[in-house]
Amino acid sequence: MGEITVAEVAASLAAKHRAPVGITQQERDNAVALFLSHCDTQYELLAISRSIIDRAVSLTQNHKLRGYDAVQLATALIANRVLITAGLSHLTPVAADDDLVVAARAKVWPPKIPTSKRPPSNALVHLALTGDERYKSGLASDGRKTGLLP
Predict the structure, then answer these.
(1) Domain residue limits at 69
(2) Cβ neighbours around 32 below 10 Å, total
(3) I need a surface site. Which of 44, 108, 127, 148 has the fewest CB within 10 A?
(4) 27 lies in a domain?
(5) What is the pTM of this model?
(6) What 3 state SS string does the chain have?
(7) Could you tell me which residues come within 8 angstroms of residue 68 by beta carbon, excluding any fewer than 6 positions away?
(8) What tens digit of pLDDT does each residue of 49-79 get?
(9) What average pLDDT does this structure show over 79-87?
(10) Does residue 147 form part of some domain?
(11) Burial 60-98 (b: 16+ CB within 10 A, else e)
(12) Is residue 143 in a domain?
């Protein structure tokens, strides 16, 4: 998962707390603490390198993506390539943003990225990998491993 995701998840949870029908401050604080704990113990955090930025720039020129979405997808594409090259299973992306789905499908994950159950509209988390139900927020509707990737 890209290091930038840490800030995106924290911002998403803070936005959910500020929303008129959002989560409590305690729920927000618990979710942030749990996520940060998982970042230390369960996720491989990838530094946002120049090669990721270059890939993100290219993605923005060929797809309708916002800057952070392009960085997230570039990180996922690079991580996915490393996994496949090592003979491991590919990532299972889950996206809440239609433009991100289109770009991901075009680049590496045809023909289908599951998007049937979307996170809250203020969520900034777009790609998911591992699955802790306590903060997953239903990103994947099929029960596959989900969590937060780049």
Answers:
(1) 4-136
(2) 17
(3) 44
(4) yes
(5) 0.65
(6) CECHHHHHHHHHHHHHHHCCCCCCHHHHHHHHHHHHHHHHHCCCCECCCHHHHHHHHHHHHHCCCCHHHHHHHHHHHHHHHHHHHCCCCCCCCCCCCHHHHHHHHHHCCCCCCCCCCCCCCCCCCCECCCCCHHHHCCCCCCCCCCCCEC
(7) 4, 8, 124
(8) 999 999 999 999 999 999 988 998 999 888 8
(9) 84
(10) no
(11) beebebeebbbbbbbbbbbbbeeeeeeeeeebbbbbbbe
(12) no
Q: Rounded to an integer, what distance in angstroms lies between the CA atom of residue 18 and that of residue 24?
A: 9
- The total domain count for the chain is 1
Bond preceding residue 110 cis, omega within 30 of 0 = no
Tokens of residue 63, six digits: 């797809």
* Contact yes or no for 80/100 (Cβ under 8 A): no
- Distance from C-alpha of 80 to C-alpha of 84, rounded to nearest angstrom: 6
The amino acid occupying position 52 is: I
Q: Name the residue among 78, 79, 70 with its Cα closest to residue 97.
A: 70
Overall residue count recorded for the chain in this entry: 150
